[in-house]
Design brief:
Blueprint (H helix, E strand, L loop, with lengths): L2 E7 L3 H9 L6 E5 L5 H9 L5 E3 L4 H4 L1 H4 L6 E7 L7 H15 L5 E5 L10 H4 L9 E3 L10 H6 L2 H10 L4 E5 L1 H5 L1 H4 L7 H15 L1 E8 L8 H12 L2 E6 L3 H18 L1
Parallel strand pairs: 1-4, 1-5, 2-3, 2-4, 5-6, 7-8, 8-9
Length: 267
C-alpha cells in the first residue's frame, strides 16, 4: 500500500485535517516534526486522530516500514513555514529541495500549494521523471493549477477571477480562518514594535486602495475565533467586513485523484 506525502503551506493545515478526519481508509498518519507542526498537531488531537511524529533527519529510515507494509495506506504531512512566501525564489528552491528528499521516502507527493506567483508553474513537468516511482501533483481545477490557497478555497481559477472582479471597486483582503489567525505573521508585523509596522501597513493600504476584508466561509472550524480575528483586523485598519462562500471540493478532489492513482498502482 502506498505512502502519500502532503507537502503543505502552513495556511492550509485545516484542509488537511478535514481530509484526514473524513477518510476512514487512512491507516497511519505521519507528521514531520520540523518546527512548523505544533498547531497542526493540536488540531489532529482535537479531531481524535492518532499520528506518529517523525524526525526530519531520519525520514528515509523511519518511513521504510510504512512504505513496505502491504496492508496499510499511510499519509505523511510536511508543513512548510509561512515566512518563505515573502521570497518566491527562495520558496521555490526550498520546496524543490524538499521534493527531492521526500520523493525518496514516498510513493506520491501532493503539494498543497498553488502557483504562488508562478514559481510552481512547471512543478509537475519538472518532476515528470518521477512519474513511475513518486508522481508529484499540485492543487488544480479542471483546467489548470490554482493561483494560490485562496483560489483553491474558492473552488478554482474561474471562481477566483469572478470574486476578484466582484470586489474590483475597492481593494479587498480575502481571509480564510488560518489567514485571519496568522495575518500578523504573514504581514511581518514586528511583535516587539507592532505600532510601527501597522502604521506602515495603513499607509500602504491607503495608496493601494484597500478598504475591505472578506471572510471566506470554508466550512471548517478547526481554527478558532475566526470572526474575532477578522473583526480585530478590520478595526485596526478601519475596514468594512464582508462575507463570501468557499469550500473544500477542490482539495478533496485533488487528494482523491492522487490517492486513487497510487492505490491503482499498488493493486
Amino acid at each position: 500500500m502506498p505512502l502519500l506525502t502532503i507537502l503543505s503551506c502552513k495556511i492550509l493545515q485545516d484542509e488537511i485535517v478535514h481530509i484526514l478526519e473524513n477518510d476512514n481508509s487512512v491507516d497511519e498518519i505521519l507528521v514531520v516534526g520540523n518546527g512548523q507542526e505544533e498547531d497542526f498537531i493540536l488540531k489532529l488531537k482535537k479531531a481524535d486522530l492518532e499520528f506518529c511524529l517523525l524526525s526530519p533527519a531520519k525520514l528515509r529510515s523511519d518511513t521504510e516500514k510504512y512504505r513496505n507494509d502491504p496492508e496499510k495506506y499511510t499519509v505523511m504531512i510536511y508543513i512548510v513555514e509561512l515566512a518563505l512566501h515573502e521570497f518566491p525564489k527562495i520558496l521555490k528552491t526550498e520546496i524543490y529541495k524538499l521534493i527531492d528528499e521526500l520523493s525518496t521516502c514516498s510513493n506520491g507527493i501532493l503539494m498543497f500549494y498553488g502557483l504562488c506567483g508562478n514559481v510552481f508553474d512547471k512543478i509537475e513537468s519538472d518532476y515528470a521523471h518521477l512519474e513511475g516511482s513518486c508522481p508529484v501533483r499540485i492543487l488544480r481545477d479542471n483546467v489548470r493549477t490554482v493561483d494560490d490557497c485562496v483560489g483553491a478555497t474558492l473552488g478554482g481559477c474561474q471562481e477566483y477571477l469572478t470574486t476578484l472582479k466582484k470586489f474590483s471597486e475597492h481593494g479587498t483582503f480575502l481571509f480564510t480562518p488560518m489567514f485571519a489567525h496568522a495575518w500578523r505573521e504573514i504581514m511581518r508585523v514586528d511583535p516587539e514594535k507592532p505600532e510601527k509596522t501597522i502604521k506602515m501597513l495603513k499607509k500602504v493600504n491607503e495608496v493601494t486602495g484597500y478598504k475591505r476584508v472578506a471572510k471566506i466561509q470554508t466550512g471548517l472550524t478547526y481554527t478558532e475565533n475566526f470572526d474575532e480575528k477578522v473583526d480585530e483586523f478590520a478595526e485596526i485598519f478601519d475596514f468594512e467586513v464582508l462575507e463570501i462562500e468557499g469550500g473544500q471540493s477542490l482539495f478533496e478532489k485533488c487528494y482523491s485523484d492522487i490517492k486513487e492513482e497510487l492505490l491503482g498502482k499498488s493493486s
